[in-house]
């Protein structure tokens, strides 16, 4: 997980410096400072977009799922960074603008959705239904993962349509005044773009589908007993889901560290004396009584459940931590930085989401190439009198396996002669023969 750190200074000097002051260091990929636009250090929205937004777009074009989320104390600049203001638009509208401005040599379409999680309930921010406040159910697909049932999808074909949807959703989002912020977002908002590309790869029609999740989290804040009941309930639900997010991030970071230490031990094992280290590594991998991977409680909150893949699965994920370095915000700033430092340790395993049939065809083609070169070298050797019976036997085995694949393919429910697998598997066996 890549990590970026945004400072929104309030331009105030808080004076008193504690003599017991200690230095705490955190290491992040980028650090931005935005207090005074006239200052040379000022990080503009465009600069943040060039560093982060462009990598979101390039990841999605390559076929990866990408998630970008902003986390931080209330009033520290999450919504400003993710959405922006009319005069200074943020990452989400910039991503939408560029996405539709790029001339495409491929046929592309983009269904978008926009939801908010308010008091642990999911609401469609773009619903065309009368009952807009109705809460939607989260369900889990065995392969595609968690999703929101009946969430409206809006196919957009140009930048204006995407910006209109974004504006509509932002207007429908729930905000309220808190001590730190007059228009504080009281819900977590997720804007998703399903990015499908129909491409021609090696003369084969193919489809790559990736999902971009742009998440603006509600701000964390300490409970104030003077707030009305609604505000207190909102605050406790926001804090509950952010605490769960913290637990999920810690568990994932711990698991990632454990996996990497297992890998390094395994590599030492394969290089060195396997007998002693080998037994150590197997206990770490969780087989017996050694350290086990932590349970990750994704389903303890709707937010972590919906972001399951983005946090610890098939996604390139970027976290933006927004902080105010005012002395009065010391505890929140420190907690945000610690949260972010944990997140940086998570290692996801993103993969290109290509069509399963196309992947199979590509793999079979690679197999054909491999067998062709084997056959060629076999024929070259055949010119010499010492022919190896073993190799002959191996090739016969492969031919037999391919025949079996062809037989299995004949049981394919589709018409066998029109099924691309059958064509390629048969070609494969022909080449070998
Ligand atoms: N870098 C910045 N430059 C100029 N103004 C900023 C910057 N960051 C935030 N602001 C302004 O500060 C105020 C609070 O910011 P914002 O709404 O983004 O906070 P937030 O973290 O989303 O708060 P909440 O969690 O309560 O919704 C807004 O008026 C916003 O325009």
TrEMBL record:
Annotated stretches, region: Disordered: 263-290
Any GO CC annotation of this UniProt entry: microtubule
InterPro entries named in the record: Kinesin_motor_CS, Kinesin_motor_dom, Kinesin_motor_dom_sf, P-loop_NTPase
Domain of life per record: Eukaryota
GO BP, one annotated term: microtubule-based movement
Bias (Low complexity) ranges: 263-284
Domain Kinesin motor residues, every copy: 1-346
Pfam families: Kinesin
Gene Ontology MF terms in the entry: ATP binding; microtubule binding; microtubule motor activity
Sorted UniProt keywords: ATP-binding, Coiled coil, Microtubule, Motor protein, Nucleotide-binding
Signal peptide segment: none
Ligand binding (ATP): 72-79
Family affiliation: Belongs to the TRAFAC class myosin-kinesin ATPase superfamily. Kinesin family.
Protein name: Kinesin-like protein
